[in-house]
Design goal:
The chain is mostly helical. The protein folds into two domains: 56-104; 107-218, AhpD-like (Up-down Bundle), CATH 1.20.1290. It is built from nine helices and two strands, in the order E-E-H-H-H-H-H-H-H-H-H. A two-stranded antiparallel ribbon has the order 1-2. It has helices spanning 64-72, 77-82, 86-101, 109-122, 126-139, 144-152, 161-175, 182-190, 195-218, and strands at 19-22, 30-33. 51% of the residues lie in helices and 4% in strands. The relative contact order is 0.15. Residues 86-136 form the Carboxymuconolactone decarboxylase-like domain. GO terms for molecular function: peroxiredoxin activity. InterPro entries: AhpD-like, CMD-like, Uncharacterised_peroxidase-rel. This is Carboxymuconolactone decarboxylase-like domain-containing protein.
Length: 228
C-alpha cells in the first residue's frame, strides 16, 4: 500500500524579501536572515500555570534539592517552571551557575553578560534579555542605561574591539552558524582573544541559544522585579 504524505508548510516564508545584515565582525562576510511568516496564528503566551505553558508543581511535592534551587534563585519564574522536571532544573542550574560564577572562567563577567544579552535579544527571548540586562548593568558598574542600549541594538553602542567582536559573533552564531569560518576566528585573535577564550565565547553563545529556546517554548513570563 502506498501512503501519500502531505508536506507541512514551512515556518519561514521565502516569497517575501529577505533582510540583509552586514556584520563588522567579518568584513568579507554577510548573511541573509529570512523574514518570518507572521501570518500564521500565534498561541497565547500564558499557559496552564500563568507563568509557563506547563503546570507548576507545588513546592511541598518537590525533592528537597529542587526546593533549595528555587530558594537560591529567589523563587523566580524560570526555576519554578523548570521544577516540573527536577532533573531538568538540576542540569540547567548546574551549568548556568558554573558558566557565570566560575572563578576560572577565561572571559571576564562583563564579556559573558554581553554575550548573554546579545544572544537573547537576537532570539527575542524576553525573559533572558531582561534578566541579563540587569546582570550586564551590574558587571559594568551599574550603568543600566548602557546595558539597555546594548540589549536594544549593540550596533548603535560604542563598544571596544573585543566587545564588538563578541557581540557580532553572538549574533552571527545565533542566526547563521554556518557562516563562521577560520578567518573569523583569526579576526578574534587579532583583537586579542586567546584560543581558550574563543572556545568559551562559543560555548556561552551556544548555551544561551539552548536556554532561550527552552524559555521561549515554555512561554515563561519574566518576573516583575526584572523591570523595577
Amino acid at each position: 500500500m502506498m501512503i501519500l504524505l502531505r508536506s507541512l508548510p514551512l515556518m519561514v516564508s521565502h516569497s517575501q524579501p529577505s533582510l540583509r545584515i552586514a556584520s563588522s565582525f567579518s568584513l568579507k562576510t554577510s548573511y541573509i536572515l529570512p523574514r518570518i511568516n507572521t501570518s500564521l496564528p500565534r498561541t497565547a503566551t500564558r499557559g496552564v500555570s500563568g507563568i509557563s505553558r506547563l503546570r507548576i508543581p507545588d513546592e511541598s511535592d518537590l525533592p528537597s534539592e529542587t526546593r533549595k534551587l528555587i530558594a537560591q534563585h529567589h523563587g523566580d519564574n524560570w526555576v519554578r517552571a523548570f521544577s516540573v522536571n527536577p532533573e531538568t532544573a538540576r542540569r540547567f542550574v548546574t551549568y548556568y551557575e558554573d558558566l557565570f560564577t566560575n572563578s576560572n572562567a577565561k572571559l571576564p563577567l562583563r564579556e559573558r553578560e554581553i554575550i548573554a544579552v546579545v544572544t537573547s535579544a537576537t532570539n527575542r527571548c524576553g525573559l533572558c534579555t531582561a534578566n541579563h540586562t540587569i546582570g550586564l548593568s551590574s558587571a559594568i558598574g551599574g550603568d543600566r542605561v548602557r546595558a539597555k542600549r546594548i540589549a536594544a541594538d549593540h550596533h548603535l553602542v560604542e563598544l571596544n574591539e573585543r566587545e564588538h567582536a563578541l557581540a557580532d559573533l553572538s549574533e552571527r552564531l545565533t542566526v547563521a552558524p554556518r557562516t563562521i569560518s577560520a578567518q573569523d576566528l583569526d579576526q578574534l585573535r587579532q583583537v586579542g582573544f586567546e584560543d581558550e577564550e574563543i572556545l568559551e565565547a562559543i560555548e556561552t553563545i551556544s548555551w544561551f541559544n539552548h536556554s532561550n529556546r527552552i524559555t521561549i517554548a515554555l512561554g515563561i513570563v519574566p518576573d516583575q522585579h526584572y523591570f523595577e
